[in-house]
Amino acid sequence: MTDLAAQATAALERSVLPSVIARGGAVRVAAASNGVVTLEVTGSPGAVFPLASRIEAVICAAVPAITAVRLITPATGPAGPPPADAGDLAEAARAIIDAEVNPAIAAHRGHVTVTGVTDGWIRIRLDGGCQGCSLAEVTIRQGIEPLLRSRLPAMTGLIDITDHEAGTEPFYSPEKR
Predict the structure, then answer these.
(1) DSSP string, 37-96
(2) Which of the four pLDDT bands, split at 50, 70 and 90, describes residue 176?
(3) Which domain holds residue 63?
(4) What is residue 116's three-state secondary structure?
(5) Most CB within 10 Å of its CB: which of 4, 16, 55, 129?
């Protein structure tokens, strides 16, 4: 491991890694050269992307020689699922969420919307009682993500783009937790 990679690993372990693990993901330094650190995301990869800017800021502040951070997922290899058309994947995800997820969370005044798909990454936004809910991450990582993974083999991961700080009526406020 290069000195740059070791420094980036130390910065991750000191500050960001516990948050990533708590969200169901894992991240490790895969490579470091010419000021660019490449991080490999495993586990629940969508758990890392909401923290991507924080991860980059922490690493760049701790190791001034690092100027950029890239996130990658392990290659699926030749036996992996074939690439899917983003429109088809988005429509399939919307159909599953509308039929199975939204009716279940409607009791909590919640709603999930698929906002798009890029390279197999499905982006969702939580609204209503789910926006700002202290259990939203559990709903995503233990409910929505496993459901979509089981039905959509072309899915790479799930990214929550919700601005939870803007939630005005969360079903479970942090005080209720």
Answers:
(1) EEEEEEESGGGTGGGHHHHHHHHHHH-TT--EEEEE-----TTSPPP--HHHHHHHHHHH
(2) low
(3) 3-72
(4) strand
(5) 55
Pick from 109, 136, 128, 135: nearest CA to 168: 128
Which of 23, 43, 72 corresponds to the end of one domain? 72
pTM over 0.85: no
pLDDT band for 76, please (50, 70, 90 cuts): very low
Which residue, chain included where needed, has tokens 């420094």?
A: 7
Question: Can you tell me the distance from the alpha carbon of 46 to that of 159, in angstroms, rounded to the nearest whole number?
Answer: 5
For residue 77, being part of any structural domain is answered with no
Say how far apart CA 126 and CA 145 lie, in whole Å: 13
Q: Extract the tokens encoding 126.
A: 């939580």
Q: Please give the Cα distance from 17 to 43 (Å, whole number).
A: 13
Determine how many CB atoms are found less than 10 A away from the CB of residue 123. 20
**Structure token pair of residue 60:** 């760049």
Residue 111: CB partners within 8 Å, gap ≥ 6?
102, 105, 126, 127, 128, 130
Residue 20 domain flag = yes
